[in-house]
Amino acid sequence: MSPTPHPAQAIAAAAEAPLTRAQALLEAERCLYCHDAPCEQACPTHIPVPQFIRRIGDGDLRGAARAILAANPLGGLCARVCPTEELCEAVCVRNTQQGQPIAIGRLQRHAVDAAMTLPASTFFTRAPATGRSVAVVGAGPAGLACAHGLALQGHHVVVFDAREKAGGLNEYGLASYKTADDFAQREIAWLLQTGGITVRCGWKLETVAQLVELRNSFDAVFLGLGLGGTAALGVPGEELAGVADAVDFIAQLRQAPDLARLPVGRRVVVIGGGMTAIDAAVQAKLLGAEQVTIAYRRGPEAMSASQVEQHWAQTHGVVIRHHLAPQALLGQDGRVSAITLAVQQEVDGRLQPTGEVETLAADQVLKAIGQKLALPWAESAGLAIQGGRLVVDAEGRTALPGVWAGGDCVAGGRDLTVEAVEHGKQAARSIHAALIQPATQPAAQSLPCAA
Ligand SMILES: Cc1cc2nc3c(=O)[nH]c(=O)nc-3n(C[C@H](O)[C@H](O)[C@H](O)COP(=O)(O)OP(=O)(O)OC[C@H]3O[C@@H](n4cnc5c(N)ncnc54)[C@H](O)[C@@H]3O)c2cc1C
Ligand code: SF4
Q1: What are the DSSP E strand ranges found in 56-186?
Q2: Hey, what CATH topology would domain 232-370 get?
């Protein structure tokens, strides 16, 4: 029998292999360079897909990367984590002609990875300094994209983040097999070479007074806070040891120096039906859990994880069970030992318990039932909230003058990395337009940045 691989090896093996040069050229040749390309329209950041693929076909990787990064400064990470099967690749005309879309995500990664061996200044040139400064709170994809867009316009940007490292969920949330080789940090380091951005980690915005201070000290503020709060199951036993939030589990795993020492249950139950549930379940399996079950309260078609993701989990030995809603967590000596789940049926689209109950043995239960905005003081600061998220207009302006927001923390989004990047990009355009309009300029009251 072959020895059990170290979890780090298992995770590395699960990471998607990059295309070789020959594979990339062959794949690029399949592209039809469609006029009004549907793939480009479907990309939230509108990367000029046919243009960059043509350049790969011509052997011009630098030009390809330039086209990608001008539209999406986090194009390397998005190439790894975007659900391309639901976005650009879903609408590729090669689906109908050859039953196989162009591997747009993998081609994008091929070009950007090659570009990242060159200095970022080769791709981005900053405009002369404007003397204006902007505070960006949150160093996730939304904040980073906004900061980058503003820095290119010559503004000075200070990015504040509560965590130790920048990156948001790119660093702490996305599955490690999607972002192997410390890619999130490498991409940030590369982007920061452009200049004009100071990152201050370990600073948390938690009072109205702090926001007032930021508004007084900077010419504009962007909030890219993501969703820091987690939803509770609301069933007995939730406080038992071994019951954890799936995002915290992933964060712990992403930051663990030695994965072999990370405590992982033998029988793990993950509650939820989205990307977080899939990521947590697959990683638990790769870390050595014997039995991993995802329990979801509705049917497969209602899961927010795509079919590709569901299949990915199943091919890694995760069992997905449907129409099961958690009822109670049972424990022994203060530690979870099982979960009871009420069997559900859908009547006129509404869930109803059938009266049957199933019990699954579990020594670890991971909750992946959604996150929520952790900004209890938002309304008292003058920010509008709808459905638990910040309300913004089409340009990302909040109800507070001089304050913009974007990414997962705003209402109406799809909670995807690429969409957070687009929000940040759009907000940067809007902030820049506001800062350069003499009539609407706020008084010049910038403090020296990152003092
Ligand atoms: C487990 C998981 C897996 C996912 N997988 C994918 C995937 O495969 N593909 C995909 O496209 N999307 C995925 N997503 C969604 C994606 O990660 C998010 O849509 C994206 O990260 C949102 O970016 P953001 O910048 O809005 O927020 P975040 O990435 O959450 O960043 C917010 C930042 O703000 C900081 N912050 C929060 N509050 C404060 C405060 N008060 N003061 C200072 N700093 C603060 C945080 O520390 C964080 O760094 C996943 C999400 C999760 C949870
Ligand atoms: S739709 Fe497909 S074939 Fe057409 S440009 Fe986009 S990737 Fe190429």
Answers
A1: 133-137, 156-161
A2: FAD/NAD(P)-binding domain (3.50.50)
